[in-house]
């Protein structure tokens, strides 16, 4: 008899991706589970299935075709999907997440086949608790939620943005071993202002303009309180909300909910980790840096806040630390006295004459690092990189905008225009670059280095909240995982093949913070590392009879 009483049988078993092993069901299992005749006779091992998947995957001619193939695999055989992803993370990450996921979101209505999460519409207000109870898997422990207004650097994609929560949760499992059965992607459909989508017959969302103001806030309030009531141990990750909502929602909810915003805190943490690693190359202190940002949205300001915290941690006065971070937005350099600055920008507005563009700011400020989070492709021009190289022995160039089509510069441009001097990182992956006999391996400042490990630690200790200190510590932990060999190659992040080890290290440090701050509900284990490892999901087939 089956070892698990609630396991489906027959065709229902083959249609359940959490249980399905496809052609790997043994003959004994087929007899006991009513599968005889429903599968071809040959019994494959999981390893044989992996070979078949990879061969089919690599025959696909475009990244979008590869994405669709992997989603189909996820829909029919979850364990095989994650085994393939984990064992081939360098190859698969760029397909299941940046940069391909951006294209997938643009075409999400066209390629949609079956729901992988929940869609909650504005018209569902008053019934959100009932909708959450429709979820058919285990009680969720982590939700990634978006309203689709700021998808990567692509803007308002409305309900098509569901590809982001789906992709992020796949990374929670692949990179940190969080059981996919406790992961829930959610899209909140409050409309879209994207005229192309409103005219698109294949758009899967409600065709109305976005709702703002009190009606929007009441909807979000009901969603948050409903999750807390129905799933009281659930972590809620905000993803790709627009600037006008992202900061205020985080400020509103984080003190009383187990929640964080990955675009603000995760991006800030991974960028800070890259800066810590860069300091090992330059032999400088973080308090000696002057950072100039292109883009003053949630990503840029989140990084700025994290860098300021790091400088204060090193003993610098907060006022002096703030003056080490400068921002250029669509109206030029943010300076003291400029009109219409919100509170998050205002604290980074310093005394200076008006400067209209990034090149002018680079010439005037002579920063040690430029950080691109603008979504403005090719905005780190040859002249800007050459200027940075003229007054820095090792200029720090972070082109963090996603997807690749929105990157401020390519890795090749950074190394060539700086004559091999740049310390480079990007949001999307770039191939190694050969320059004058040296091979540079560009680092990818991917949030996947941070949020899965933070989430894993939060879930294992059952933390009540997610304080910013967890992300600051995650940055230091990630930087400590970078080897000297990595640095010698110009890489300021560890190899993606090490990401589960990195997530384990981050989770352990996150748990230490939770117990020190007395916000953990689970009893403190004697061996944190062993406890975390024991709860990490491994997608290996097991015997069902």
Keywords:
Rossmann fold, 25 helices, 4 domains, Hemocyanin, N-terminal domain, 545 residues, five-stranded parallel beta sheet, seven-stranded mixed beta sheet
State the distance separating the first and last CA atoms: 6 Å
The count of strands amounts to: 14
Largest sheet, described in full? 7 strands, mixed
Q: Could you name the CATH class of the largest domain?
A: Alpha Beta
- Find the structural class using helix and strand composition: alpha/beta
**Overall 3D geometry?**
globular
Portion of residues in beta strands equals 5-15%
CATH superfamily of the largest domain: NAD(P)-binding Rossmann-like Domain
Number of helical runs?
Answer: 25
As a whole number of angstroms, the C-alpha radius of gyration is 24 Å
What is the residue-averaged pLDDT? 96
Task: Please name the CATH topology of the largest domain.
Answer: Rossmann fold
Uncertain spans: none
Strands of the biggest beta sheet: in what spatial order?
8-7-6-9-10-11-14
Sequence-ordered SSE layout with sheet pairings:
Elements: H1 10-14, H2 27-32, H3 46-59, H4 63-76, H5 78-87, H6 89-96, H7 100-106, H8 108-111, E1 118-121, H9 128-132, E2 142-146, H10 163-176, E3 183-189, H11 195-198, H12 213-230, E4 235-238, H13 243-253, E5 259-261, H14 262-282, E6 291-294, H15 298-313, H16 318-322, E7 325-329, E8 332-333, H17 343-346, H18 358-365, E9 369-372, H19 382-391, E10 396-399, H20 411-417, E11 423-426, E12 433-435, E13 438-440, E14 443-444, H21 451-461, H22 469-480, H23 484-488, H24 499-516, H25 528-534
